Recover the amino acids of this structure.
């Protein structure tokens, strides 16, 4: 066989083999890909309650939605994901010291979710909050990352 | 292998086909006279098909290898057997997983014992395979045609760690849930791909049904197949390299060939003894100490402290001191690269190999390196704890420099300096000086791991083990 054809065929075989391997890897990866979160319907929308049920400066836990509904002193709402941004532990609210204190590695966050004590690298993630007809609703389909607190994150009733 | 299992010569040439056939049949029928003899022939030829007929006599000495590779295979087999049993009674669904383990332990005959054997064998395998790797390195058994097998061994070790880790989640108790949360949370610190990687490892935002299902499949199907296939290849490569490395004090003939011993019975007896002693030890220990099972997993209630499985605690300890980028990505990547690159650093041939720590110089420098690491690591950990107080390291932009680049550069500079000192002061060869560095880093990592296991209490603060 002329060497040119031989090298072409060899290249074709190697190419086909590489394509087959790539395809297999792609199939495995798509099987492993995280299952889609609950679609954006009623299930991902938690109805927290009427605005007046939450006193300014209070924190209310919603274990089923995995978030804390915070009402800031000025009346604005924030929904904080309860997962610590360090290694993913669940952060409890410590009423006595007025901070979220992670039991795992001693990270602490203030009422707005901002880091008071490392090792946490960034504030607690947020869920979108809506106030409709005086009812607070939280969309828990996807937590939103942020690097710091700013006023635009707060929803007002 | 031509001299085994062939009791009779070929039929003479010129014989009629029927006589030849008869001779062959007789050969099959009457060579092993009794059942015992027949069985011995079958077992003998099968064993010798897997193993060589002769091995260098000096390599079968127990203290040359401590049978660590074989012990790993025995543990792997114990794990496959006990795992197959456990699979029958286990349900990989969050609502039922913990209950099925309780049922296994409470109602099934020997259920608790089998789970204990599986649990302790898995932990022991991580340890034994790790020490096996050290043995191979310290006797220079990763060079001269064994380079590829060293890399295969590293892949096998990674697969063993992955097996142990995926199995850690399955009991679905608090310890399992939060340990896996911690390790996958560590993966989230990888730059750019981190969140996607963590969500791939978790099968979603948090650990849930998808995680448990995936880990169960990896733990019971993918990783065991990879491990057994890989181990087969690993053992075959050892045989192709002429068996394990021959110690320098081996008796040699005039051509320099080391004196041989028959595999059957000399090595087989020793291997069987190691396997049986190991089996007895694991069974006895498991009969006395049962596998731990904490309260059922509660995603809303974190453990304090929440720790990774013990074999990852060295990295979690690094996370207490270094910027996450360095603790989770840079330092482990540097370590893994160095480990894989070791056989390819061009160490000159013809230097003494095969003895523990290579030579008298090698022994002395390795001992000094181990002592240095035993002193330096706790001092650094304590000093850093004093600097940090109760909180973890800051992770802002400036921390990349102060808690990432600078400490890593200081460590590398210290390594380079001590390499030169060991070379000039002790007259060590390059391989011996590399060995001293390896000992220093391995002992330092072991100390960090021990700190994470025993000396970290609530909030990851330093405590005495008896106060934790």
């Amino acid at each position: 066989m002329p060497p040119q054809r031989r090298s072409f065929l060899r290249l074709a075989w190697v190419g086909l083999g590489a394509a087959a391997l790539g395809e297999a890897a792609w199939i495995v990866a798509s099987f492993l890909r995280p299952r889609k979160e609950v679609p954006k319907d009623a299930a991902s929308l938690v109805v927290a309650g009427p605005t007046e049920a939450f006193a300014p400066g209070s924190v209310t836990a919603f274990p089923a939605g995995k978030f804390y509904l915070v009402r800031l002193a000025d009346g604005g709402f924030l929904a904080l994901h309860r997962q610590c941004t360090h290694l993913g532990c669940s952060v409890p609210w410590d009423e006595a010291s007025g901070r979220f204190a992670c039991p795992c590695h001693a990270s602490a966050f203030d009422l707005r979710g901002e880091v008071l004590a490392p090792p946490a690298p960034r504030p607690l993630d947020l869920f979108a909050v809506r106030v409709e007809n005086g009812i607070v609703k939280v969309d828990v389909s996807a937590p939103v990352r942020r690097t710091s607190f700013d006023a635009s994150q707060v929803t007002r009733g | 292998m031509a001299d085994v299992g062939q009791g009779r010569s070929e039929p003479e040439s010129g014989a009629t086909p029927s006589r030849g056939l008869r001779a062959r049949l007789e050969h099959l029928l009457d060579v092993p006279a009794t059942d015992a003899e027949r069985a011995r022939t079958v077992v003998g030829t099968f064993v010798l098909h897997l193993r060589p007929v002769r091995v260098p006599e000096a390599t079968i000495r127990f203290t040359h290898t401590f049978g660590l590779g074989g012990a790993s295979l025995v543990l792997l087999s114990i794990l496959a057997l006990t795992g197959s049993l456990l699979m029958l009674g286990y349900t990989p669904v969050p609502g039922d997983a913990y209950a099925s383990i309780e049922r296994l332990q409470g109602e099934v005959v020997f259920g608790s014992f089998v789970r204990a054997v599986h649990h302790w064998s898995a932990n022991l395998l991580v340890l034994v395979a790790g020490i096996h790797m050290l043995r191979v390195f310290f006797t220079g058994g990763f060079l001269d045609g064994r380079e590829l097998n060293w890399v295969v061994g590293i892949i096998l070790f990674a697969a063993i760690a992955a097996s142990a880790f995926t199995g850690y989640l399955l009991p679905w108790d608090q310890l399992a849930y939060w340990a896996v949360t911690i390790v996958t949370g560590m993966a989230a610190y990888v730059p750019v791909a981190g969140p996607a990687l963590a969500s791939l490892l978790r099968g979603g935002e948090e650990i849930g049904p998808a995680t448990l299902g995936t880990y169960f499949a990896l733990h019971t199907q993918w990783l065991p197949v990879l491990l057994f296939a890989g181990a087969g290849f690993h053992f075959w490569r050892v045989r192709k390299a002429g068996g394990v490395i021959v110690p320098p004090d081996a008796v040699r003939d005039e051509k320099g060939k080391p004196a041989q011993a028959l595999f059957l019975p000399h090595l087989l007896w020793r291997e069987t003894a190691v396997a049986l002693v190991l089996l007895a030890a694991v069974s006895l220990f498991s009969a006395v100490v049962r596998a731990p099972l904490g309260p059922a997993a509660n995603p809303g209630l974190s453990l304090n402290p929440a720790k990774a499985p013990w074999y990852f605690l060295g990295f979690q300890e690094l996370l207490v001191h270094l910027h996450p980028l360095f603790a989770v990505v840079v330092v482990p990547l540097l370590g893994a690269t160095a480990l894989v690159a070791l056989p390819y650093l061009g160490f000159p041939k013809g230097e003494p190999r095969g003895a523990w720590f290579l030579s008298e110089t090698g022994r002395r420098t390795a001992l000094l390196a181990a002592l240095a690491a035993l002193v330096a690591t706790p001092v650094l950990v304590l000093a850093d704890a004093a600097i940090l107080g109760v909180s973890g390291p800051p992770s802002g932009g400036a921390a990349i420099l102060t808690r990432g680049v600078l400490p890593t550069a200081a460590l590398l500079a210290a390594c380079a300096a001590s390499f030169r000192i060991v070379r000039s002061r002790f007259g060590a060869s390059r391989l011996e000086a590399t060995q001293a560095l390896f000992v220093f880093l391995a002992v330092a990592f072991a100390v960090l791991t021990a700190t994470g296991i025993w000396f970290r209490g609530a909030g990851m603060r330093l405590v005495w083990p008896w106060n934790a």
In short: Chain B touches chain A through 40 residues (CB under 8 Å). Confidence is low (pLDDT under 50) at residues 1-15 of chain B. The longest strand of chain B covers residues 54-56.
